[in-house]
Design goal:
Blueprint: H1 3-9, H2 18-26, H3 28-32, E1 36-37, H4 48-60, H5 71-90, E2 98-103, H6 106-116, E3 124-128, H7 133-136, H8 138-144, E4 148-152, H9 162-170, E5 178-182, H10 195-202, E6 206-210, E7 229-233, H11 235-238, E8 245-250, H12 251-254, E9 267-270, E10 277-279, H13 293-310, H14 312-332, E11 342-345, E12 356-361, H15 371-380, E13 383-384, E14 386-388, H16 393-399, H17 404-411, H18 420-427, E15 434-438, H19 445-456
Parallel strand pairs: 1-13, 3-4, 3-5, 5-6
Antiparallel strand pairs: 2-8, 7-8, 9-10, 11-12, 12-15, 14-15
Bound molecules: pyridoxal-5'-phosphate.
The site of pyridoxal-5'-phosphate (PLP) has 12 residues, from helix 6.
């Protein structure tokens, strides 16, 4: 298909053509290297102008550890304050209502909530089955402190009915309880309803809305929906810095958290001899040690870049056109015997979803092609995509229709599972993962055509010996 034909079916793409210039000016390395980058849910890409601006700022001034009164130190303190404000503006949050706590990544933000939330007997933790491992892991804190945990099931289309959510939230609780779900699935791209936040609040629950995947191109608006905790990783939004994320938290929810320790930066005073410490107020009492003050400069520059150059309305319009085209073409693609080439997971339209598509390739006989074999061919074709379970086991368990009894049985032998192969063998699956492509701000029609060529290369494929290969470099979920 030519671009002209594509534009006839997707006229909205026309209005996004200025992003082609952004790609040419700021991401020339993509076309210079001939790489088709389809892993924006894994990581966004930093623009050239962002990196140049950073190099200028950092090279022209002197930046010191923020904990003293020197000019370089004050400069760094100001950079951190500025990055905090820019983050609050980015999510349209009132500074009297929300605070930003810098962490190493979204996972660090999630751990802060897990370790500090007042879980106790009588409290509940409700987790949507579609959650990243870094959210699921909070259940270990909850369990250790005697709270009850439960997961809320997904429908086969990987969405969840409001009634299932309400059913979980209606169960009586006598202590502070937490409901955690992603605004956008990192596996399927499904965007779960933000109205659930109000449902949970009206029943007395705190809400953790994982926006790590969603914020990449969608706007979090904390003046409209008011979750208590929102973890983010900045690199997913603008590619760099890669070692900084944040927890955006409602001040009244922060006041309920209890940190299990103290450290440099989190206390106003402490005594080695007396064995006491006086905690600083939020956000300082949640930021352990020296903050990443040079990274904070990168945050302000990245957020400016997103606001001034990327034009997120156009980005969303563009990726919607490309995603819809891909979904249609993937659904249509057939082997010569009429069998489908792709098994798509999740909704097959673009309503209520981000530009992330999860699928497996099928051979002529309907067998799933091992996703790692498919990934290897993608690498040969110059395509960066993702294979595996994407740290989101609940969606994998849903699409492969795994039985709770089998999963519980395998759990009893989990200490003996050393690789993903051990897990596959124990659960009896020929393959344990899927493939994922995800689009971002400078994805273009040529990327999609290249990926479609790759898909067509699987037409009339018959699975042979590759299922017997081992993949020692890819031994984790
Ligand atoms: C939805 C979601 N939550 C949490 C995370 C964890 O983010 P990080 O690895 O940056 O801590 C990811 C990462 O892919 C994600 O997509």
């Amino acid at each position: 298909m030519s671009l002209e034909t594509f534009l006839r079916s997707y006229p909205a793409y026309h209005g996004t053509r200025h992003l082609d210039r952004v790609r040419a000016d700021d991401f020339p390395r993509l076309d210079e290297q001939g790489l088709i980058y389809l892993d924006y849910t894994g990581s966004g890409l930093p623009s050239r102008s962002q990196l140049r601006a950073y190099q200028r700022v950092i090279g022209d001034d002197i930046w010191g550890n923020p904990h003293s009164a020197s000019v370089p130190s004050r400069r760094s303190t100001e950079a951190i304050r500025h990055a905090r404000q820019a983050t609050l503006r980015f999510v349209n949050a009132d500074p009297d209502e929300y605070s930003v706590i810098f962490t190493a990544n979204a996972t660090g933000a999630l751990r802060l909530v897990g370790e500090s939330f007042p879980f106790q007997p009588g409290a509940r933790l409700a987790l949507l089955r579609d959650n990243h491992n870094s959210v699921l892991g909070i259940r270990e804190y909850a369990r250790a402190r005697g709270a009850t945990t439960e997961t809320i099931a997904l429908r086969p289309d990987l969405r969840t009915d409001l009634s299932a959510v309400v059913d979980a939230l209606d169960r009586a609780e006598t202590a502070p309880s937490l409901f955690a779900y992603p605004a956008q699935s990192n596996f399927s791209g499904v965007q779960h309803p933000l109205e659930w936040i109000h449902e949970a609040h009206s029943r007395g629950w705190r809400v953790l809305l994982d926006a790590a995947a969603y914020a990449a191109i969608s706007d979090v608006d904390l003046s409209r929906y008011k979750p208590d905790f929102v973890p983010l990783s900045y690199y997913k939004i603008f590619g760099w810095p890669t070692g900084l994320g944040c927890l955006i938290a409602r001040n009244d929810a922060l006041a309920q958290l209890r940190r299990p320790w103290f450290s440099g930066g989190t206390v106003v005073a402490s005594s080695a001899l007396g064995g006491w410490h006086a905690s600083a107020g939020p956000p300082d009492n949640f930021e352990d040690g020296t903050p990443d003050f040079l990274g904070a400069l990168g945050v302000s520059i990245g957020l400016d870049y997103v606001r001034q150059t990327l034009d997120r309305d156009s980005v969303r319009a563009r990726v919607r056109c490309l995603t819809e085209f891909l979904l249609v073409e993937m659904s249509k693609l057939r082997h010569s015997n009429g069998a489908p080439v792709c098994a798509l997971y999740g909704p097959t339209d673009t309503r209520g979803r981000g530009p992330t598509i999860a699928f497996n390739l099928l051979d002529m006989d309907g067998n799933i092609v091992d996703e790692r074999v498919a990934e290897d061919r993608a690498v040969e074709c110059g395509i960066a995509l993702r294979a595996g379970c994407f740290c989101n086991p609940g969606v994998g368990e849903t699409i492969f229709e795994l039985e709770p009894a089998d999963l519980i049985r395998v759990g009893t032998m989990s200490a003996g599972l050393h690789t993903i192969e051990d897990y596959r063998a124990a659960i009896g699956l020929p393959t344990g993962g899927a493939l994922r492509v995800s689009l971002g701000p400078v994805s273009n029609f040529d990327d999609i055509l290249g990926f479609h060529r790759y898909l067509r290369s699987w037409c009339d494929h018959r699975t042979a010996d590759e299922q017997l290969r081992t993949f020692p470099d890819r031994d984790r979920c």
